[in-house]
Amino acid sequence: MRTLKEKNKFIATILAFAVIPISGLATDIYLPSMPSMATEFNLPESSIQLTLSIFLISYGLTQFFAGSIADSFGRYRISLISMALFVVSFLITVSTDNIMVIYAMRVCQGALSGLAVVSKRAFFVDVYEGEQRKHYLSIMTIVWSVGPIIAPFIGGYLQKHFGWQSNFYVLAGYSLLILILELIFSGETLKTKNPFHISFLLKEYERMFKTKDFFYGMLMCGLSYAMVIFFNLCGAFIIEHKMGYSEVIAGYASLILGFAWMVGGFLGKALINKAFLPKIRYANFIQLALIVLMFAASYFTSNLYSLVAFAFAIHITAGFIFNNYFAYCLGRFPDSAGLAGGLTGGVAFIITSGISYGIVALIKPEIQLQVAEGYFILGILGLFILSMIKIRKAHI
Q: Which residues are in the Major facilitator superfamily (MFS) profile domain (predicted)?
């Protein structure tokens, strides 16, 4: 397998950034189509919402061993295989009217996303060092947020003019383009291969799980992103079915909330040198204050504008917390970057999928007040974890 050439380092970095948002693109591009899919398949909302949760669970579980595979067999080959299989799975998705086949393809797409994204996360640790590495890891989380920003915006127009299948045709074309460019410009970046042994894997996972700051960081990443997925699961249905707006408007709403996540990422990067835990606590307190304000306002005004405005502010705080903790966790174990990235993503996205789908199933949000209730549960869980960190530090 050829190694990355120095002259192609910049282009390979751009390609790595292009792969990073693939999971967000695959989850968010069809959000405006979910109500129409439920109607076309003659299924309840929960059955279509499950396609998103299945993807996230598969994405999270895959990352547990994707890091070990990337550290043992390299990054480049995994990326190529993932992109090729992406094309096939997306084309199968659009060619079926069987929801079980779509579920199976979403499992495959989640697994492929896990393999591809973990490999590219490790790319930045392989290629860059010191402050430059810290810089690129922080940018990486911002680039990752591009997927949720542009995907539903594009998906709204695709749904309106071409139907839900067009979303997956676009994803297949995007994957094919990256595959071709990777074959031309990229290469292997792994310098030293770690053994692929179960005993080694368990030993490394034990070491990471016992590192408390890393463990709590994974939990906070999961809860922060769960706020976004919680809204994604119910937002389009509320905007389209309950408020009567079109799929394009639902796409614009998701676009705005995607920008909120990116703003939180930029704030995280801007304040990267500030004391870590105090800024996370301040963000959580602001988040809870906004949620309480959303509760109160819901008794006086409840419309598209108020819903999106409150969600926008809350998602900024979630993006800020996620950016800080995710970058911290990825750089915590540079000697096992693939494993650390895989474990972080695995735990975070399993928490995200389980909690977000569980809250939606419990509350069944149909109005702004119920959305605030879901946010409140997540905000309180974040406060509990941060309180545990503070108590632990006080006893050290």
A: 12-396
The token duo for 181 is 């460019």
Tokens of 376: 């409140």
Helix (DSSP H) and strand (DSSP E) numbers for the chain: 16, 0
For 113-153, write each residue's pLDDT tens digit. Answer: 989 988 888 888 888 887 777 778 778 877 877 777 788 88
Assign residue 130 a region (left: φ > 0; alpha: ψ between -120 and 50; beta: otherwise). Answer: left
Check if the beta carbon of residue 172 is closer than 8 Å to that of residue 91: yes
Distance CA 68, CA 203 (A): 12
Amino acid type, 47: S
| Residues 343 and 60 sit within 8 Å (Cβ to Cβ) | no
Which class for 126: exposed (0-12), middle (13-18), buried (19 or more C-beta within 10 A)?
buried
User: What is the DSSP code (8-state) at residue 188?
Assistant: B
Nearest Cα to 117, choosing from 171, 187, 67, 167?
A: 67
Distance CA 31, CA 395 (A): 46
Q: How far apart are CA 186 and CA 13, in angstroms?
A: 9
Sorting pLDDT into bands at 50, 70 and 90, what band is 338? Answer: low
Provide the whole-model pTM: 0.80
Token pair for residue 279? 């800024």
DSSP-assigned states of every residue in 186-249? --B---SPPP--HHHHHHHHHHHHH-HHHHHHHHHHHHHHHHHHHHHHHHHHIIIIIS---HHH
Query: How far apart are alpha carbons 366 and 65 in whole angstroms?
Result: 38
Residue 55 confidence (pLDDT) above 80:
yes
Domains of the chain: 6-187+196-394 (1.20.1250.20)
The tokens 């930045």 sit on which residue?
124
Q: What is the mean pLDDT of the chain?
A: 88
Q: Please name which of 128, 121, 165, 164 lies closest in space to residue 21, comparing C-alpha atoms.
A: 121
C-alpha–C-alpha distance, residues 96 and 93, integer Å: 6
